[in-house]
Amino acid sequence: MTTELYFIYDSHCPWSYATTPLVNALQQAYPEMNVHLLHSAHYIGKDSAGEEQMEAAARMSGLKFGRDHIRYVNSPKSSIKTANFMAWLQAKQADKQLDVLNALQRAHFIEGNPLSNKHDFNDIVEKFKLSPSNKVFKDELSMDAEYVLEGIEEIQQVIGTTGFPVLVMTVNDNAIFIDHSQYLSSPHAVVAAVEKEIAAIKLAKTES
Predict the structure, then answer these.
(1) Spatial CB neighbours of 49, under 8 Å, sequence gap ≥ 6
(2) Which whole number is the average pLDDT over 158-184?
(3) Which of 29, 121, 196, 198 lies 20 to 30 Å (CA to CA) from residue 127?
């Protein structure tokens, strides 16, 4: 059984932050699964998710948002450098990407780190022993990040939505669309739901 998980997210989106625990739970349940973290680079310094969305995400997931994040919650956000950073990581050290995403979201949503210049990434670069090149921290999307956006577009065409966050798991040739909103308050429940889907797929195969 070949399993892959595709998570379309934005590092500066509170709903993506609330959905990452589901990705963590699925990765723990299926350690052999290939996880593809696809950063949508939605925020380009013109707007933010804002207070209302943050409060709704906090209410549904029970996750905490730090005081410094809350203070600047309505200020415009740019996730371009984070998109570049994550695309670079996926190309160079994919085994670290989920741990790094958790750390980045913690830095942004708990510690209030805007992740808007190279210096903002120093702690995470050191902690995970990474060596990204300077062009990762430019103000425009890197080629790697553009490539990720192409991948997102293909998935969006298949599932018929341009929204995010999105979770899709593939089992051999079958795709399971996971409605993340159902599991935000209890991330581990997603594992049982996926197991049911996989059992149904296997059953259909034996019957055909």
Answers:
(1) 12, 13, 14, 15, 73, 77
(2) 91
(3) 29
Terminal C-alpha separation, the chain:
17
3-class SS of residue 39: strand
Report the Cα 152 to chain-centroid distance in Å. Answer: 12
Q: Which residue has the tokens 């966050």?
A: 165
All residues at 6 or more sequence positions from 40 whose CB lies less than 8 Å from its CB, including other chains: 8, 9, 10, 83, 149, 152, 164
Q: State both tokens at 143.
A: 């080629």
Total length of the chain: 208
d(CA 36, CA 159): 16
Q: What are the contacts of 50-58 at 24+ separation with CB within 8 A?
A: 50/74, 53/14, 53/15, 54/14, 56/14, 57/14, 57/15, 57/17, 57/18, 57/184, 58/14, 58/18
Helix (H, G, I), strand (E, B) or coil at 132: coil
Tell me which H or E stretch contains 205: helix 189-207
- pTM summary value: 0.94
Q: What are phi and psi of 137, to 5 degrees?
A: -100, 25
- Residue 73 contacts residue 51 (beta carbons within 8 Å): yes
User: What tens digit of pLDDT does each residue of 38-62 get?
Assistant: 999 999 989 999 999 999 999 999 9
At residue 163, what is the residue type? Answer: G
Question: Dihedrals φ, ψ of 36, to 5°?
Answer: -115, 110
